[in-house]
Amino acid sequence: MDNCAQGNMQNNTQGNTQEIIDNIYKELKVHQKEAIRQSAEMDAFAYLMDMGTGKTLCDIVDTLKSQAYPWLIITRNGVKINWAREIQKWTGHADTVLLEGTLNKKVSLLNAGMKRGDRYYILNFESLRGMSAHLIKYRWGKLSLDESSSVKSPTAVCTNYANVVRQQAQRVRLLTGTPTGGSPLDLFSQFYILNPAILGFYPRPRSKKPISSAFYPFKHAHAEIELQYHYNRKHESIRRDDSGRPIYKNVDVILQKIAPYSFTIKKEDCLDLPEQVIMSRYVDMHEEQERIYKELAAESVADIPENETMSVANALARMVRLQQVLGGNVVLDEDRGERRIPENKTSAVFDILEEIGDNKAVVWCRFKAEIKYLQSELNRAGYNVLTYYGDTEDRDETYGQILAGNYDVVVANAQSGGLGLDFTTANYSIYYSRSFNLIEYQQSRDRIYRMGQNKKVTQIILITNGTLEVMLDKSLAEKKSFSDFFTDTAATSGGREALRLILNGG
Fold first, then answer.
1. What is the CATH number of the domain that holds 298?
2. Which candidate among 34, 100, 120, 383 keeps its CA 20 to 30 Å from the CA of 63?
3. Four-residue CA torsion sign, 404, 405, 407, 413
4. Is residue 243 part of a domain?
5. Which residues of 111-133 are buried (b: 16+ CB within 10 A; e: fewer)?
């Protein structure tokens, strides 16, 4: 192709791109335009925008304007499909490569796409470890870390591999509405990956783990540290106040440093959304269920020696087992699997569905067994049911049906369906069971209460009386993950007593 022909082709591409951008701008909210304006000339930038405020579209426009190709998007597994759909919807470009399957398959898709000159590549965080060595063979015009709180831990494998890939990207973006889980220290790894110069803490020379070695002085600068001894080993921990809360310092300095490199906005400050009602509905345990729950709860507390330190992981594992009982499942053993027991939550779900009439609903469940059981019962009652969880086959087709509203009820798992997806064809959420993770809960809640929703939204939480669900509700209402809630409770009453209080509902 001669130079003249190349020039004409380039001009046509630029002309088409500008037309696409102009059409998108007609649909943008004021806050989205401002976010794009602030990020336009920045190689490193974070969209710290509440869930449902349109940060995905901001990032798409940013790429169109900068022409920063190839573009690598790293996100949660269940959200890859949504990114591909959004790129297709707004740009008309179909050259999106979903990097999935076996490692060899992902590598083959990557290399083939690069050979063709494809512009968009989407990978999940869990695949970074295996793919990083192949990703760094290419120079990326842009890297976006969607739900960047996935890399908030400086010691996590995913965090360190994300940092390795970041070195090969000219332009980097963070996208999250929840950059911290309550600790300002969670900002470090995310902004270090964005650009280490932002926070100004650097790793020790020749460090094999640059993020964690740079995090050490950052933690000392922004948290009160005390030495503790556990099994004769020295351990640093963050000092807590009289109420058991961690003590941080100089937080305003962190916020001042990240401000020029980020755009922050809350949903209530930018969206004219319809009314949202969040309400609790309490249910009692079935007689057999109550007997099993109380026996297991008593055993869980009794087998902890008096005055023994109890790890958070140990406590949560015991709570998960009891939470399964509250959903109607008793885990027997590996050979015998699970046994279904009577419970009252399913009847409550049916009562709610009858009350809401023709309105569509999403029922959120934590466990696969709950999803499969509810799907079966709802189908038997004549409801048109879709399911969305980790093992869902044909996720793309299922999500298309959700977007089209071709269902009565969606039964979903928050870990898969609560991230980055649009469920605004429904205006009711029913929480059959909830994750212990605050962010997962918040994100699932915002699947129906977001841009595009034009009906009153009602979110109904089912809570079993006299059980850990009462305390879980208190924890999430206080905007704490259950792990932090247990830690705070244990700080004042001891691990054994904290577990007893939580399992008995306070």
1. 3.40.50.300
2. 100
3. positive
4. no
5. eebeeeebbbbbbbbebbeebbe
Q: What is the pLDDT of residues 452-474, one digit of tens each?
A: 899 999 999 999 999 999 999 99
The domain total for the chain is: 2
CB atoms within 10 A of CB 261: 21
Residue 389: how many CB atoms within 10 A of its CB?
22
The answer on pLDDT for 490 being more than 70 is: yes
How far is 260 from 267, CA to CA, in rounded Å? 21
Q: What range defines the domain where residue 464 resides?
A: 276-503
Q: Are 42 and 34 in contact (CB under 8 A)?
A: no
Tell me the pLDDT tens digit for each residue of 318-333: 999 999 999 999 876 6
Ranges of H-type helices in 40-186: 55-66, 80-91, 103-116, 128-135, 157-166
The answer to whether position 5 is within a domain reads no
Interior/surface letters 346-379, b for 16+ CB within 10 angstroms, e for the rest: bebbeebbeeeeeebbbbbbbbebbbebbbebbe
For residue 2, pLDDT over 70 is answered with no
Cα–Cα distance measured from residue 376 to residue 380, given in angstroms and rounded to the nearest whole number? 6
Tally of CB atoms within 10 A around 404:
9
Residues with Cβ within 8 Å of 77's Cβ and at least 6 positions away in sequence, in order, are: 124, 125, 126, 390, 416
Average pLDDT value for the chain: 89
Q: Which two tokens stand for residue 47?
A: 């969209």
Picking from 368, 388, 360, 376, the residue whose alpha carbon sits closest to that of residue 327 is 368
